[in-house]
Specification:
It contains 15 helices and 6 strands. The protein is α+β, with helices and mostly antiparallel strands.
């Protein structure tokens, strides 16, 4: 059984887009054995961490387990969708539900607002379950061609060809994964319709508040709008934190993609990409953060950041349909 594997090497490195699409089609279709929603959650975790890989295309189990836990926290705690398995209750769902009941956590509590100790505890338990039931299963379905994994090192290494493919078709893959995950959850739980579920499955990775990032940015930069230069203040919620490249594409929150913005720019920019001239500005801004090596918290926040990554992210977002570029409105 694939899920019992403790490790696996890449069996194929050179894959065409057509070959990768064929494998994805099998994973998402009825041709793949889908006894739980785990495979979808792992794909979502991989997409959320596409820009956090190191130079060897590796991701740690902790990175993936954190994203994976957020997926099920949203479904189990926020929406009481406990059935994620066609047999007995999925272990990840049980872990989260048990902790919610034990700690008396209200259903509206967002995962990133949990006490750090509790977050670490939950992620550690989920990571153990992923070793048993997740990595080997998707590895088997992809015939060992998408990634290598090693339980001892607790590392997953993406096939570079698959990484490039997922970047190129990221938006489509997100939509396909969300749809098929919602379809399976609908079969396992008593819910009105798949349309009702899609919103629940989609709203997973976004943080409840970007205030912690605002404090960090205000520590190192002037209280000015990144886009128009307007001075910012705390009155009337004038200071905002904006995803330079839209969150709907990035699917995660990283300080190197976050900027201070005024209400006017934040509202008018919405889900659009700034014109390319601003790319140079954020590259320079990020260099300032990268140089703060004496501040270990900044070093951690900027881990795995490279200038090439945000350029690549910008270019791939355009390829994925974010081609209606935005410029600040005149004062």
């Amino acid at each position: 059984m694939g899920h019992k594997l403790k490790g696996g090497e890449l069996r194929e490195i050179y894959l065409t887009d057509e070959e990768i699409w064929r494998i994805f089609t099998i994973i998402l279709s009825n041709k793949s054995v889908k006894s739980s929603t785990y495979k979808y959650a792992l794909i979502k975790a991989l997409i959320e961490n596409l820009y956090q890989i190191n130079e060897d295309f590796e991701l740690t189990y902790d990175q993936l387990a954190y994203s994976f836990t957020k997926v099920y926290w949203n479904l189990v705690v926020h929406h009481d969708l406990l059935n994620q398995n066609s047999g007995q209750t999925a272990r990840v769902a049980s872990i989260i539900k048990e902790e919610q009941m034990k700690s008396g956590i209200p259903s509206e509590m967002v995962f990133d607002k949990l006490d750090d100790t509790l977050q670490i505890k939950l992620v550690s338990k989920v990571k153990t379950t992923m070793k048993i039931n997740v990595y080997g299963a998707l590895y088997g379905d992809t015939r060992g061609s998408f990634y290598a994994f090693d339980h001892k090192k607790e590392m997953l290494k993406l096939n570079p060809a698959v990484h490039g493919f997922m970047l190129n078709f990221q938006r489509l893959l997100v939509n396909l994964t969300n749809y098929h995950m919602a379809a399976m959850i609908e079969q396992l739980n008593e819910v009105p319709s798949i349309n009702y579920l899609l919103g629940k499955v989609e709203s997973i990775a976004k943080r409840s508040s970007l205030k912690p990032f605002e404090k960090v940015l205000l520590t190192y930069f002037k209280a000015e709008c990144f886009y128009c230069g307007k001075k910012l203040s705390d009155t009337k919620r004038e200071t905002h934190v904006d995803h330079f490249i839209p969150w709907s594409f990035v699917q995660s929150d990283h300080i190197w993609n976050l900027v201070l913005a005024c209400n006017k720019c934040n509202s008018s920019k919405s889900d659009r990409l700034p014109t390319r001239s601003y790319l140079e500005y954020i590259i320079d801004r990020n260099q300032v953060l990268t140089d703060k090596k004496e501040d270990t918290s900044i070093t951690t926040l900027m881990s795995n950041y490279k200038t090439d990554k945000i350029i690549m992210l910008y270019d791939y977002s355009i390829k994925n349909g974010f081609d209606s570029l935005w410029i600040p409105l005149k004062a």
